[in-house]
Every structure is written in structure tokens, then in C-alpha cells.
Amino acid sequence: MCRDHTTPRERLIRMAESGGRRRLGRRTGALAALLLGAASLLLSGCGAPTPTPTKDAPVLPLREAAGDRIRVGTAVEGLRSSQALKDSTYARILGTEFSSVTPENQMKWAFLQPTRGTWDFAPADEVVGFATKHGQTVRGHTLIWHGGNPSWVSDAGMSCEAMRQTVRTHITTVVKHYRGRVAEWDVANELLDENGRPRPENPFVRACGMGIVDDAFRWARAADPDAKLFLNDYGAEAVNARSDAYVELIRGMKARGVPIDGFGVQAHLRLKDGVPKTMGENLARFAHLGLKVAITEADVRLDWHPGEPVSSSRQAAQARAYAQLVKVCVDQPACTSFTVWGFTDRYSWLPEGIDGQGYAALMTDQYTRKPAFDAVARALYAGR
């Protein structure tokens, strides 16, 4: 029986190949599908009534629904990861439903190197160890970001020479520590503002200019030649000034021989805005540059405060938006993964991250599956 309790949320930091995957063919018999569905619901804790499995609505873990087409991932709650992973329901769902995990905050500078030369890998190691145990890949997040930095980095006013040495040491130490265990890295996160200009609050770029981004990719590649290296940002889902600037930035990086492998769009969306109509076209632009693309931090948030009821029509609209996001990914051959930024409202960065916004995840804070959960499963299955 599911426990009826509420865990207080904390959010101090705002945004951070499956081996052993069980496979199930399209033509699995009805009895096998029903058994899998029952097992999946049991492992998932509380949930909505299980629908009768059909070709269009399979009762399967999300990682099974996706098959080999893409990895389906989730962020792993960041500030209280020990608490979350020791929550048996959370851990069962995390290990059963997803083929990829992203540490939400545990690999950011403030966690890994809170003071110069003092390293704390324990929270991130916990997530990586969980992923290894459950046959999941890991996306490392993130090596350079304007947020999530300790004051000795963000407020130090370092010279470019000092900053370069600091960043090189940090990236080399972190990426080597996880060599062979982290498949992809968000090397640089949220570099550009909505006008496509470098963010002035980024301490690394402020000290050295955009050249330090090229260096970061080179240092990461040297530390782990097999890891795939990504740029990542929000607000770059559509064809717009920010994504235009990234296209030009990446063209320049490739011309300079910088080892960049992919571009990630976060897809933190508001329900009232919907999925950008040019999202597929935009992902194609990055694919044409020779990159892999990924949806890295998807959620669909509502105007909402904790405890407010959500109408069936708004839940249905949210489900449609999630399904559209999945379809954009599976329709683009270069799209390798679809990751949600947490699967339950219990540990969501919202509404604390954005006041008055929430109800964004696939499950409620009591682990009840929303219509969005089943919509994602069907869209993944349809895209196999």
C-alpha cells in the first residue's frame, strides 16, 4: 500500500547505451503484455487504473516502450538525493521505467568542488552507482554554467589565466573520475541569452570570453575520448534568435576543430504556450551540422499552486504536449534521447523554482500516473 505523506520540497539551485535493457518485441502475446503491465504498475507504487494493453497503448515500462529507438531518461532529484533514492517507490520507478538518468544538481560545481581543491563526489557517485546497477546510461550535467557555482568561482574575479587553469583542473578531474561511466556531458549549459549573446553573468566567459568554451570541450575530450559532448540550453527549441546564434556558434566551433558531438534543447515548456511549431525544423538544423540532438530536461508546467485541483481538460492538454515532444524527437533520426526533468511532482524543482507554476511532471506527488505518462508511453511505442 502506498504511504500518504508529503515530503517538503527544497530548491536552492535552479537549473542541472542501456546495457542490460530488457527487450520486448512488438508482437508479444496478450498474456505476456498483461503480466508485464501488472508488474510495471506494482513496481510503480500508486497509479491510475491500468489500461488494457493494445498496440497503440502498451502497458510497458517507458524504457520498454521506447525499444532501441531512443533512450528515455529522467533527472534524479538533486538536493536530497539520498532521501529520494531511499524512497522505495521513487527508486523502483526510477530503476524500472528509465534507460537514462541525469543528476539534477549533483555534478554542478557547488556540489563537486565547494571549496577550491576540496572534492565531494559522494552524491553524484550515488546516482552513477544506481544507474550502473539498473543498466542505465548517465548524462553528466554540467561542466560550465553561470549558475550552481560556489562563491570562490563566481565571485573571485579571477584573471583569464587563473580561470583557465581552474576550469581545466575541474573538468579534467571530474570527467576522468567518471570516465567510462558517463556516456554524455553537457559541457556548457545556457551560454546565450534570448538575443543570442553570451550571458554576462557567466563567470567563465566573463573572465576569458567564449574561447574558454572551445577549451572546455577539448579538455573534456582529452579526459574521456568516448564520452559524447553537448551544448545545452532552454529557449532554443524553436527557430529563434537564440537557436540561430547556436547554429553559428557551432559552425565556428567545428571549423576550429572543436570536438562537439551534440546539441540539447531543454524543453521546459508552459502548457499555455504549447510545443513550438518550428521545433522539428530547428532540430533538423543541428542534425545537418553533423550533431546528435536530444531533448534533455522536458516538463510541461501549468499555472498552479500546490493543492489546487487540475481539470481533466488541462491534464489532457498536458498529455498532448508531452506526446508532441516525444514525436518531435523520434521523428528526427539524429535525436538520441528524451529526458524529463524529474518524473514526479514530489521532487520537482517547481513551483519553488518559478512561483505559481507547477504540476509539470508525469506523476503526481503521490506517484499517481497522469494522462501525460501514458501519452509518453504511447508516443515512444509508436516511434519504435
What is the count of β-strands?
10
* Strand/helix succession: HHEHHEHHEHHEHHEHEEHEHEEH
Secondary structure: helix percent: 25-40%
What's the overall average pLDDT, rounded?
A: 88
Give the strand line-up of the largest sheet. Answer: 1-2-3-4-5-6-8-9
Derived from helix and strand composition plus strand pairing, the structural class reads alpha/beta
Can you tell me the overall shape? globular
So how many helices? Answer: 14
Rg of Cα set? 20 Å
Main sheet?
8 strands, parallel, barrel
Extract low-pLDDT stretches. 1-53
Strand content: 5-15%
Verbal overview:
The chain is an alpha/beta fold. The protein has 14 helices and ten strands. It has an eight-stranded parallel β-barrel with strand order 1-2-3-4-5-6-8-9, surrounded by five helices. Helix 12 links the parallel strand 7 and strand 8. The radius of gyration is 20 Å and the shape is globular.
